[in-house]
Amino acid sequence: MPTTLAEPLDPVLLGSTTEVHSRSIDRFARAHDASHYLLIPDAVLSPADAEGVARAFGAVRAAGRTMTFRSGGTSLSGQGVSGDILVDTRSHFRGIAVEDDGASVRVGPGATVRQVNTRLARYRRKLGPDPASEIACTIGGVVANNSSGMACGITENSYQTVESMRIVLPSGTILDTGRADANDVLQTAEPAIAEGLLALRDRLLASPAHVAFLRQQFSMKNTMGYGLNALLDFDDPVRILEHLIIGSEGTLAFVAEARFRTIEVRPAIATGLLVFETLTAAMTALPALADLGLATIELLDAASLRVAQGLSDVPATIAEIEVQGHAALLVEVHSDSADTLVQASAVAQAHFESLPLAIAPRLTTDAAERAALWHVRKGLYTAIAGARPSGTTALLEDIVVPVPRLLATCERLIELFDEHGYEGSVIFGHAKDGNVHFLLNERFDDPESVARYRRFTEDLVTLVLAQQGSLKAEHGTGRIMAPFVRRQYGDELTDMMWEIKRLFDPDLILNPGVVLSDDPDSYLDDLKRVPTVESEVDRCVECGYCEPTCPSKSITLTPRQRIVIRRDMAWAEEQGDTDLLRDLRSDYDYDGLQTCAVDGMCGVACPVDINTGDLVRRLRAEESSTVEGVVWDAAAKNWDAVTRVGGTALTLASAMPAPLVTGVTKVGRAVLGADTVPLYDGGLPRGGTKPPTSQNPANAEAVFFGACIGTMFGAEGHGEGSRDAVRALLDRAGIAVVIPEDAGGMCCGTPWKSKGHVAGYDRMTKRVLAGLWEASRSGALPVVCDAASCTEGLHTMLAKSVAEYPEYARLVIEDATTYIAREVLPRVTVSAKLDSVAVHPTCSTTALGATGALTAIAAAVADDVFVPEGWGCCAFAGDRGMLHPELTASATEVESAEVRAADADRGGFDAFVSANRTCEIGMTRATGQPYRHVVEVLEELTRA
């Protein structure tokens, strides 16, 4: 395979604003999505606007090629992969504009559902579609797949809630369907489409049998084939065109922007689990439960309950069941207020108590209990996909049948699992819609396994169609069901779909093989290979949930891409493709390793609990030199002196002309490498202060672990820094603390761990935990740390050591924000609150669950607390921001723009705060504003 293709399209036709990615690492990284298909594009385009897409259509047509749109990469049916030209719509098209006090929102296809709902939250509104992948799926995919979810059904999906769109047709015509004269524009620019759609509508209406069939098919969730119901529901060409494009999976046009009607958020919620003795009993109860108006009714079959019993936090109600043929329904009541929720819950509870349940029913509003119940539902995917054998692919499928036929369908599905040898498969899903999902683990590098998959698919198609269902409810037809559209709809309706395809796309350049295929075996082509690579990442299902939070997503690779490139390198090695292997390896060092912030945010988002930083740290350890390891081990032995020297060097540097010091470090980087020598700039602070002196008062209530970054980096401006501020606040609150012996020689270990220096990390771990064990009086006192990332580092240290030193499990390590919010705030008085403060939460406060404490302290010092909706990890990551300042610049771009706009709106914030010194440096560099630790501000405002 050629490793790089130069200019596969005419650059003149493409225009200068469209980026063309043709490096091997770019093409392979973007090739993978959540489906079980894999095609490697010849090039990846990133157009900046609708006009760029129109030009891309022209360039692709002129070259005789085809193109496929790709955004979030969470689609499961193969509709987002291409072996020709792939068009990335996530890098741009991220605009979100809320209108009419939240009643409407205009969104670009690159914004995620969660990002849009975050913007709408202040208006108590949200999008109608509620897919489970909302953290990562983008509006482009939501519209293209007509996505639904757990609650929206067929009344609040994209088909029902999109008000208008700005579309680009394959001819290059750009049409805003919200314009008053949109029909005139369409008639003038595309008369064949306008007239052809009306002719198709007339022909369809002339067949009562086809009308009745389509009405039945689209009375359920249905994303199989094109939405021919648009020809029945609308009578003007623009509205028909608009609703045919919804659910067309990028085969008819490009949606550059969609305007949605939003729905009201009902914030009062009660959740319960109804456990039945049999699946039959659960299905018998379903119609009456649906009539109650429950927001969600989620099915879990007996196999699901058995899997749930293996989860670490399984609720007692499930843990105590001796599962045989049981089934459960997870139900929710949503209301506008707590009062109306009480009334609605009482009605529901009364009905529940009349049902033949195995366990007494109970609705709860407790957040922790509700989260535990939902973790059962959502943890099924994690448990099964995460535990699958290495080298297999996890297939998450969905079907829909009329609700009265759901029992027979599920019973037959279970039989099919047994007949085809799919062990451990579970059925779950949206019972009130007749829409269920099931999970299979399959190996596609084995011909026998592929043959089994073929046989199972044939039996599945026969089952669903016999029950008058649809082969795809909400995941889209994609490649997986395209050959079966004709089976579901018959020849005449399928031929009508082909006519629609040719009306819009006469040259057939858009997403070939998706939605429609005349090749009966096409669903077995291009199945994804999943070679065994590393234990850290082999369970990755390539879902992409990790990507939106990754700080390097806009500059190099995401966690998913770091993993799949490792798989692609393993595959290239297996195939003997030395050119490709060399090409991928050469770019992976910078893209995959040097620019990973190892912040752990990917692990927070990952449904199978992968922290890609663990892989990166190990690879860094393997690549580090023996000399470098010896130097860092020596640093661990003498850390007090090292930090003091570092702080002194920064103080000296701050007194010298910044360009001079920057020039010296640039020379060092050129000689020793950019990943070894930090780049100094004038934005770095002076050195810090001396570490605190040890003390051990008898009346101590806590141990204070002053982070060593306070020695290395001085406070912003003329501030005193977080170490001194925490000490002052504790004294003011009358809380005596122990300060360990050799406090200056202690560190959370992150500098060694992030670089993969194992010996130095182990040395520091033993010293620190032994010191804290003694200082805490064998775990009797909590340990309080003043820097969130260091607190998280201590947690990691502790977690890795309890197996060898089980007594350390009694150590309690807490961030200063949580300790001060709980213990100090009630004992001090803020003299005069600030008007406004901007807050930067950090990846560590997120991982520690301390962001609430951070904002609580901010609320104690200011009337207006602003947390940017687009905040994310700053990627300063210890010294990573000095080694690769371009990484921090990219990671903070969205947040810093939001902060600057909010600062201008308010006439200037009174303070900018966070909870970690290096993050404060990163945000100061990004925004030009003086970020400080929130405890510094609290300390100043509580002075007598």
The helix fraction, in percent, is 40-55%
Radius of gyration: 29 Å
| SS-derived structural category | alpha/beta
Number of helices: 39
Overall morphology: globular
Please state the average pLDDT score.
Answer: 91
Q: Biggest sheet, in brief?
A: 7 strands, antiparallel
Instruction: Give the strand order of the largest sheet, numbering strands 1, 2, ... along the chain.
Output: 15-12-14-13-17-18-16
Poorly predicted regions are: 660-672
First-residue to last-residue Cα separation: 73 Å
Strand % is 5-15%
* Counted beta strands: 26
Structure description:
There is one protein chain. The protein is an alpha/beta fold. It is built from 39 helices and 26 strands. The strands form 6 sheets. Strands 15-12-14-13-17-18-16 form a 7-stranded antiparallel beta sheet, sandwiched between helices. A 5-stranded antiparallel beta sheet has the order 5-6-10-8-9. Strand 25, helix 38 (917-927) and strand 26 form a beta-alpha-beta unit. The longest helix has 20 residues, at 367-386. It starts with 10 loop residues before the first helix and ends with a helix.
